[in-house]
Amino acid sequence: MKTFISFLILCLIATCNAELRTWTAVNGKEVEAEFVSIEKGIVKLKLKSGKVFEVPFDKLSELDQEFLKAKPSSASLADNIVGKLMTFEMEDNEFQIQFNGNGIMLSGAIGNLEDLGLTYKIKDNEVLVFNEEERDGGISFSSSSPKVGDQVEWGPEEEKMKAKITKIESEIRSSIKELKNNTGEIIKVKYLTKSDEITMVGCDKKASGNLLIPEKIDGKPVTSIANNAFQYCDNLLSVLIPDSVINIGNYSFTGCGSLKNITIGNGVTKIGMSAFSNCPSLTSIKIPNNVISIGPTMFSGCVRLENVIIGKGVKNIGYGAFYTRSLETVTFLGDAPDVGEKPFDGATTIYRKPDAKGWSDTWGGRPVKLISDKPVAETKPELEGVDDKAIVGKWERQGIIFIFNEDGTGEISSNGRTIDTGTWSIKDGKIHTVNSGEFGPRGRVVIYSLSAEGHLQPPSGGSVFKKIK
């Protein structure tokens, strides 16, 4: 009793900014504080300084007791955060945490929650975080009923950092959906449900054939494809993205080695960084009119990509978006968009409509011509068939040595140093080389032709490899 009264006297000088109330002890002493919670007969009050203190319910005046009895009972911290997705801001960076009902804590960047093996327990107004059953810091909330704008303390006890709650939402639920490809084989995809929307987040890496992403799952629209969702699904041949999808995330289809066709729905407005990079089988693609933004390096490493059509709505294109030497033409159906540095790596020609605005004679360092000037594609001279013996040996181009061995292995060297290794084979009268991943991107495919003169012709044209041994 004396301890509490002494504490109230010390606090009489404190004033609060919001939701303040004058609280009176049974001896008549008063203090201004904000009500936090009442649990098991203990009342928690918060001063202007942010300090939270506790007082037994029966040590307050009758008037205060009547006030608390009329107030709805305060739920515990667990009642208010379990099953919620919370967004925090710390030093101008935002991140998300979801407290699942099974004790698992998901965390990650905005829109990219991951299970990092973290679990949690709740003690009073603190979340105790564990990594492989070892304590790994915690999150201290200022009350059992956290709200947007509240400050929290984050991290290990000895070096807590402050963060602010910026959003509290319903939890995102993870589920598996079985789809069928064009041959009837099952493709398992992982998706998240948030409110009334679906985000595709993963795919069985063994998935093959043609994949049709559904427009709806369980009656809810599929609106987004998350970062890395279909990354390295090497056996997919084609993907159809429905009109319901609005956003395609970073690296969402990167490294899909067999992907030949991608149909992008008309609802897509944003395509992220490197979304289709290192897809060596892709030869052409059309970006629909509603797309506004194309991320950096989107087609980098697409070594067979020859033609791209860009819809009229595109306003921004990131750096290195078309950085592949095989690209022959990019046709724009609208005005000239803003573009980042080094968008091209080859001898690409830009074609545009005559009434489009903002164009000059060059764009991104490449020549710009009218669509009406686009030539009819010519067939390059090639031999009807290619014999293995005609390929085995050393080939040279501008100091680069290409070696084809009899056992189907090969390497590229420069100045006596190996810069690439892999395998080679002959298919349909052409030479297919596949990178091993030791010196460059794994699985990168480059297809060469043998010209009528007996030279190796790269897919992007230009100078040829001549046999030297």
Task: Describe the protein.
- The chain has four helices and 39 strands.
- Helices cover 6% and strands 43% of the residues.
- It is mainly beta.
- It has four domains: 2-70, SLA1 homology domain 1 (SH3 type barrels, Roll), CATH 2.30.30.700; 77-170; 173-373, Ribonuclease Inhibitor (Leucine-rich repeat, LRR (right-handed beta-alpha superhelix), Alpha-Beta Horseshoe), CATH 3.80.10.10; 388-467, Lipocalin (Beta Barrel), CATH 2.40.128.280.
- Mean pLDDT is 82; it is low at 1-18, 377-384 and 437-442.
- The longest helix has 9 residues, at 2-10.
- Strands 13, 14, 15, 17, 18, 20, 22, 24, 26 and 28 form a ten-stranded mixed sheet that branches.
Defining traits:
eight-stranded antiparallel β-sheet, ten-stranded mixed β-sheet, about 5% helix, 4 helices, elongated, about 475 residues, 4 domains, mainly beta, Leucine-rich repeat, LRR (right-handed beta-alpha superhelix), SH3 type barrels
